[in-house]
Structures are given as C-alpha cells and as structure tokens.
Amino acid sequence: MEEATFLTRFAETVHVIHRSDSLRASAAMQQRALSHPKIRFHWNKEVDRIYGADLVSGVNLVDTVDGSLTALELSGVFIAIGADPRTHLVHGQLELSPAGTIAVDGRSSRTSLPGVFAAGDVIDPTYKQAATAAGSGVVAALDAEEYLANLPTDVRENASLPA
After folding, report:
1. Which of 17, 30, 116, 125 has its CA 20 to 30 A from that of 81?
2. d(CA 20, CA 81)
3. Is the pTM value of this prediction over 0.85?
4. For residue range 83-122, what is the model confidence (pLDDT) as tens digits?
5. How many CB atoms are located within 10 Å of the residue 81 CB?
6. Residue 42, domain CATH
7. Whether residue 66 is found in the same domain as residue 96
8. Is 80 a domain residue?
C-alpha cells in the first residue's frame, strides 16, 4: 500500500490488483490507500498477461474466485508482491524471530550461529526499506570484520584470512 500511495504522485490513477478480498497492510496504510481518490482496487484478481509492444498498453486479469478474464487498459506496471522475508534457506540452521525473520543479537547482525551475520529485510520485520537495509549491511560488515579479527591466529592462518 505504501508503493501504491507513493505512485499517486506520478500517475493519474493507480490500479491495485490484489489476489484476495482483503489487505494485510497495517490498518493505517489500508485506510490511507482505500480512501485515496487516485487508487482503484481490483479484488480477487491476478495479472494473467501484460500487453504492449514497446510500451505497456494493458493487462489481462484473471478472477481468483471464478476464473473469468477482464482486460484493463493502462500505461505502466509496477510489481510489488509483498515483503515476506526470504529466510527458507536458513530454516533449521539459524534461530528465527516470531515474525519469521532471522533473529540477531540486539542491534548487531550476529545470528545464533557464530560467524554467521544477517542484514536487511531478513532481520527487519518493520521498515523493509533500501536505506535501512543498506545501513544494516554496514553493521553486518563491521560485525564480521570484528569477528574475523578476534579469531585465534592459528584459525585465521589456516583459513587464509588476512592477519
């Protein structure tokens, strides 16, 4: 809903195509989008096809309830499919938070497995923004650097790490 609201600054109309009949955004974001005069909702729909040669001219929508097809003329497509953290690669290996993100030690990037650090959306259940993810990446780099610097000399030498 944040993206849809943002796009109203540039578009005459923003069509939100949503595969179910309800939103999972915060109540405040839902209300902001639902009441915005430039946003039109298409409930229980999925994009089946995008039309256009050099430029987008429309989409075909399929109804998720009855399978019917609808054409919608538009001049652009912006895809925002949610913000589920992609943590499936570490399930059973790292501790996860109740929100499904990788659990880290306080404000650090240290995970439950020594020497493994996490950053960005996989640890942030709230903000999910590029700027906060970039800052989180800096934290992870600094934590990893400190971890490597504090390894015993023989471990660093055997791992071919710089002294």
Report:
1. 116
2. 12
3. no
4. 667 788 899 999 999 988 999 999 999 999 999 999 988 9
5. 6
6. 3.50.50.60
7. no
8. no
